[in-house]
Design goal:
46% of the residues lie in helices and 21% in strands. By secondary structure, it is α+β, with helices and mostly antiparallel strands. Strand 5 and strand 6 form a beta hairpin. Helix 2 packs antiparallel against helix 3 and helix 7 runs antiparallel to helix 8.
Length: 268
Amino acid sequence: MSAPSWYDVLDVEPDASAEEIRAAWKARIADLEPTDRKFRVCNEAAEVLLDPTRRAAYDRERAGTPAPEAKGSLLPSAITDLRKPKKAKTPAVGEPTAAPATTSRRLVPGWALLVLAVLTVAVMGVAAWVAVTQPSDASVEDSTRAAQSAAERAVGPILSYNALHLDEDQQAAESYMTSKYREDYDKLFEVIKQNAPQTKTIVKAQVVASGIVRSGEDRVDVLLFVNRPTTNKDHSTPVVFKDQVTVTMQKVDGEWLVDDMATSPVSQ
């Protein structure tokens, strides 16, 4: 029985399109942890199959077909032919011969240089696209850790408030949110503004532990366990509420922000 191919790893056909491969890859890693061996294997398969050059070489290797170009050649054969000296053509009988060259140096036509420049730019563009769109397992893991750290920093200010300076607390919390989640938060905080001054409530949220629920390139779900010591006019000694908070972190312009939050009490 032959070893499984990269196509088998992602469960796609050998003639699958890039879009089909990308969708299969994302579906495969959706429920895997970054430290899972399957997570890394799926990323390796995606890196090969989503890179047109590497995929072509891999397909040739599987089929046992030699590469069409020598390994040392970095240019297409149509361009390398420009660099090969042409054999002199023997004139037929009666055909006029060309005048002898006055110098042995050959000049490359301007149109050839233009074609070469255009092809070089195109190759660089493809390389840049591959580098940007094909994430490695290391980059996904780094992004996940950054999102987890950002979630830990954000939850405290978002769940904390002091009846004596509610406006300042609201502004501080909003700096950790996307514009979408800020709208939901502001609605909830209006209720707090109506009640906290009368009850003199003070909440200081503290993150106890956190873990990753789902990782991704620019969207990560983080689970946090939070203690909320709370005082008010009836309780000067803090009453500690324990919550389980699931936070969806969204990467916006290179910064991880809270895009959604769901809170539920932890069973005592």
